[in-house]
Every structure is written in C-alpha cells, then in structure tokens.
Specification:
The protein has 185 residues and is of the alpha/beta class. The chain has one domain (2-184): Flavodoxin domain (Rossmann fold, 3-Layer(aba) Sandwich), CATH 3.40.50.360. Helices cover 39% and strands 21% of the residues. The protein has helices at 16-23, 47-52, 56-66, 84-95, 119-132, 164-184, and strands at 2-8, 32-36, 70-75, 105-111, 135-136, 142-144, 151-154, 157-161. The strands form two sheets. Strands 1, 2, 3, 4, 5 and 6 form a six-stranded parallel β-sheet that branches. A hairpin with a 2-residue loop joins strand 7 (151-154) and strand 8. It starts with a strand and ends with a helix. Bound molecules: flavin mononucleotide. Flavin mononucleotide (FMN) is lined by residues 10, 12, 15-17, 76-80, 112-114, 118.
Length: 185
C-alpha cells in the first residue's frame, strides 16, 4: 500500500475540512492508504524552543511526513491566506534537519462556505512550497465551494461528502497524486 498523510489546516472539531479528510479514503485509487496526521496544535514557532530541542510533537509530525509517500493538505482559508496553525506547522517542519517536504509529492484541497472554496489559501501554499521544494499536484484543483451544502450533517457537524461532482474531481486529484508519487518514487 502507498501511505499518504492527510494534514488538516483546521483545529476545530466540527471542521468541514476534517470531514473532507474523512471522506477521502473512499475516493482514493486502489493501493493508496490515507492516514490522518497528528494534530497541528503546536507551540508557536520560536527559535529559543528549537534551540532547546524540537518538541516531540514536531518530531512526530516530521516523522509522519517523512514516512509517507505523499501528503494531502486539506485546509480552510483565513483572511485570504493560510490559517496560522498550518503555517506554524510548516514553519516548524521547515527547520527540522533534512526538512521532510523536500521532493515530497503533495496535493492541496480546501473547503469553505464561500464561492472560492479556499482558493487563495491554496495559492499561498503553492508559493510556500516553492521554497521548501515540495512537489505539488497541479491539476485538477480541489476547492470545495459552498461547503455547507455538500456534506451530510449529524448533530450540526459535517460528516460525509455527498456531492458527486466534488467526489469526481477529488478522485481525479488523488489519481494525479498517485501518478506523481509513482513518477518521483
Ligand atoms: C479567522 C477566520 C478567517 C476567515 N477568512 C476566510 C476567508 O478569507 N475566506 C473564506 O472563504 N472563508 C473564511 N473564513 C470562513 C471559513 O472558511 C469557515 O469558517 C470554514 O468553515 C473553516 O473551515 P473548517 O470548518 O474546516 O474549520 C474565515 C474564518 C475564520 C475563523
């Protein structure tokens, strides 16, 4: 099985992006196993903390990225950009020796209630991964627009994605990730 790590850019329990992550295994190509990453609820990056030794939570996340053949980042957009906890996690991992995103196949997905579906956060992530030399899937892009209407709801929380056109584009995106992993493997 090809192990792929899914990192959620939202910390909240009823996150639509976490619901999207949990909908992915059913849409993955044969041979791809998608596992959820450890939490990105990390201390704010501070060189003084780094100098005293990387916290175990950072090392565990870096090991998880390193141990996966590919990464899926599924995130909301905050104020037209990358949510602070996700940027902070990337900043931490960028300081780990042999930073784990280098040459790593990565695909980006976002979900938001608006009509752009988090697109602007994705483009900022693409820019960040230029410096970190992550290998990003170019297309098809997965931006889940009007996300509030596309998930089954249980107790006011989104659960499973139930929009067929969105499922179709996700299948294509994950297949593209599998091809990128095979090409770079
Ligand atoms: C601080 C903050 C900033 C936000 N900025 C944006 C934004 O720029 N664009 C957008 O589409 N939604 C924005 N939203 C709304 C989020 O897309 C929405 O809350 C979404 O459900 C968050 O994802 P989650 O459900 O996975 O936590 C913002 C929400 C917060 C809390």
């Amino acid at each position: 099985m090809t192990k792929v790590l899914a990192i959620c850019g939202s910390l909240r329990k009823a996150s639509v992006n976490r619901a999207l992550i949990r909908s992915l295994p059913a849409l993955a190509p044969e041979g791809m196993e998608i596992v959820e990453a450890p939490s990105i609820d990390l201390p704010l990056y501070n060189f003084d903390i780094q100098a005293a030794g990387f916290p175990d939570t950072i090392t565990a996340l870096a090991d998880a990225v390193r141990g996966a053949a590919g990464v899926i980042i599924v995130t909301p957009e905050y104020n037209y950009s990358v949510p602070a906890p996700l940027k902070n996690a990337i900043d931490w991992l960028s300081r780990v020796p042999n930073q784990p995103f280098q040459n790593k196949p990565i695909t980006l997905m976002s979900a938001a209630p608006g009509i752009l579906g988090g697109a602007r956060a994705q483009y900022h992530l693409r820019q960040i991964f230029i410096f970190l030399e992550g290998m990003i899937v170019n297309r098809p892009e997965v931006m889940v627009t009007m996300a509030g209407t596309k998930f089954e709801m249980v107790d006011n929380a989104p659960t499973v994605l139930n929009d067929q056109p969105t499922k179709d584009v996700i299948k294509q995106n994950l297949a593209a990730l599998a091809r990128l992993i095979a090409r770079l493997g």
